[in-house]
Amino acid sequence: MPDVVHTIIMFSRTLKCLSLTALLTLGSTTALSGAHSFQIPPSYEVTETFCKFTFEDFHLQIKPLGDLISKGEGDYNAVNRGYAGDTPGGIKGLTGMTFENYTVGQVIDMQRRRVYAVGRYQFIPSTLRFAVAMSDVDELDMFTPDTQDKLFAALILFKRPAVGAYLRGNHDHIGWALNELAKEWASVEYRQGRGFYDHVGGNRARITRSDAKKTLESVRATIAK
Predict the structure, then answer these.
(1) Which of 143, 147, 145 is nearest to 101 (CA)?
(2) 48 has a pLDDT exceeding 60
(3) Domain that holds residue 207
(4) HSE on the CB side for 130, CA within 13 Å?
(5) pTM of the entire structure?
(6) 8, 26, 27, 56: which sits with the fewest CB atoms below 10 Å from its CB?
């Protein structure tokens, strides 16, 4: 059964990658958010390289972006039960143990009954399941800082591909990438000092658009080296 599940997960990742690659190679401006299009560099063409992700490298390369996001979201043991800041003691305050003592599967199970957003990047239930499916993380892996960083990388690449594609040099529309970043993390400014989800569930922007822009540019430059 584990082998079957692994095969299904890998097939799901491949389909997602193929879909994204198709969008990246389209010349039509209507294919992606109406006004944006970009060309995929030769080194990433179609499936041979673009779909063979090395999460070990990518999640380390984007660590500065993760560090920035965490300033507005939380630490590796942060949780909330539906309202930002409602559980200041984090998971240790609730259970007496930190997340590295729980498997990813156990954390997913917790989200069905006890907590809502979890970890450094405040994964909500649907987002955490998505990130696991689109990464090389298994539900039997421990929910360690490294695991959380890999799941963060999966969100950047697959849930908000405009961000991942900008970082990888596939397009130059940084405004688009910034908008998508703010739509994923409530702590990032969207417009005029406000976040995309301000006042929803106690959320408010804490990371300026300017700081996010500088970090995206810096990470992109590092990846390009």
Answers:
(1) 143
(2) no
(3) 2-224
(4) 15
(5) 0.78
(6) 27
